[in-house]
Amino acid sequence: MPPVRGGLCRLYGAFRGRINLALAAACLIAAHPPAAPRTVAKGEPPLSAATQVSGGVRADDQSSLALDAVELWLDPDPATQRLAGRARLVLRAKAAVARPSIDLDSNFTVRRVTVDGAPVTPARPDGRPDGRIVLPAPLAAGARATVEITYDGTPHVAVNAPWDDGMVWAKTPEGHPWVASTTEGYGCDILWPCLDFPEGEPAVATLHITAPAGLRAPANGRLLGVDTLPDGRTVWHWRARQPNTYAIALNIGPYLEQSGSYRSRYGNAIPLHYWHLPGEGDKPRQLFGEFAPALDFFESLIGPYPFGDEKVGVVETPHKGMEHQTINAYGNGYAKAPEGFDWLFQHEFAHEWFANQMTVANWDDYWLHEGFATYMQPLYGRWREGEARYAAMMEAQRNQIVNRAPIVRDKVLTEEEVYEPTKGGAGTDIYYKGSWTLHTLRWLIGDRAFFAATRRLVYGRPDPRPGNFTPRYASTREFQRLVAAEAGRNLDWFFDVYLRGTALPVLVQERRGDTLRLSWRTERDRPFPMPIEIQVGDAAPRRIALPATLPVPAGAHVVIDPASRVLRDSPAVTAFQAWQAAQRTAK
Length: 587
Hints:
By secondary structure, the chain is an alpha+beta fold. It has 12 helices and 26 strands. It has an 8-stranded mixed β-sheet, covered by helices on one side. A 5-stranded mixed β-sheet has the order 14-15-16-18-17. A hairpin with a 5-residue loop joins strand 14 (256-263) and strand 15 (269-276). Helix 5 crosses helix 8 and helix 8 packs across helix 9 (447-459). It is globular.
């Protein structure tokens, strides 16, 4: 996610022929009722309180459910701004579940539910799920159930996607429908019946998305085929392995396509695809030209592209962007930047490693997604141009750290409780303070240990190769253990100060005559044995342990941390931020 702020009516396999796929799609997609074109206002219809909660503590033992597979038939109608859908979910109980339940927004009407083929009576006569569909029978540990749900309705329209979730019903400059969805904050139940918590990822997702005549519907994973219905609409069939819960997205428009293939450092060929609007001149080709260098950077520094057997996919959207697995949303308008690459494309692409391959099991560890993905921009600048570019980009991030709340609170949280300052969250500090925490950690333990720990965090092993790893869940505590193992020492004090505290450490300087005393002051007097670099006069900078008392000639010029290695309190930055706030208020 960018900082501020997917009888005859049986589906046959693709190997049985295209006619069967087309017939199945025509039969299984719920028909739209006749309706005149209309426009639904942003923020309407309102979301239920249950839908607005994504992650957090799950009621009725829902966290004991796993989703072995999901198959979705999604038919969005831009004219009526309605969505008709059908979902087939294979649920598995990791432990006994007394009240198995599936999340779905109450703006939908559930027309039919079956469990293992047997119809289920709706909990409410009007068919509204009230945020959750509760199944009638418990599931024993290890038991499976196949649930089919047919539903339709007017999905919530985003106020300001992607920071506020929902549908985006837009028009291209030529007046064609341009449709997108985002669900990271409020969760997948805005769009489809799901398990709306991070570990609710389906092991495999098969998508059948209907597009109006003349439009295209790029989506997650590999394209299985495209079928044309008698009325000219097309059905796009996709299959993705283990997409994260908010990664499944709708994208429909009059797209043109840039495509190619990349031979990776690991020997595999990776398909490259960019779907973009027509009439944009050479700009789509230029952005597509950034795909291969970005891939080379990530594979050289982190490891193999996690979804090389599917594709690198990017689609132009009427909102800023989002890390939708193998179909990243891009809406940066081809903006130019002094670093010479498109930061938004690179940031969302970073999430293929830090969010899609490695997903946090609890939103409390969300900084592992956004902090790492944000740190990849200055690291990419360094890879391309060297230390000066890296330093300039890190400085820009430093000025945006606000320190209003801890980044990690060591409890199960919802996405909004982490992201939204009004709900006690750290806001954009999960991006910028997270990035600077990684910058300081890399200097503290060195490149070898830092990237070794990062690689193990992402892949779960030190030697990733295409085919020897799968998407995984991770946590801050695991990263701490990996860092300790690679650095050869316990560094919990580091994470406690930067992630679990609010205020930054203060470097206390006391200069008397020809001596200089340096020490740290931290919130709650937390231990903080952080070394620092010091430069006296024209001598080379040297790294010293703190606290320390140093001989310094009277009148000598002293520079503390000349290369800005250590994240610490800065009165200058605080004053600058206060001045900026006053300027905004004055306007």
